[in-house]
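cron nightly-structures :: item 1 of 1
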Amino acid sequence: MKQKYRLLTGPDDSAFCKRVCDALEEGYVLHGSPSITFHAGKGVAYVAQALVWPEEQAVQVRPLGPLDSKVCGCGK
């Protein structure tokens, strides 16, 4: 089973981009915007990108049925 959520981090280089691309090819979906920070002492930019497994993004919505409305207290 795949992890529901992954956060990839590392230097902003081609290896990081490849890790993100590999995760996308596996079926993960980008979640939110990437983050970036800069380490002035090392002169290196570090990035982070969150990814989620698609089934975790899906929200199944169904209308309330007669039994549901009685249980939640919104029915008569």
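cron nightly-structures :: done
Residues 5-59 form one domain.
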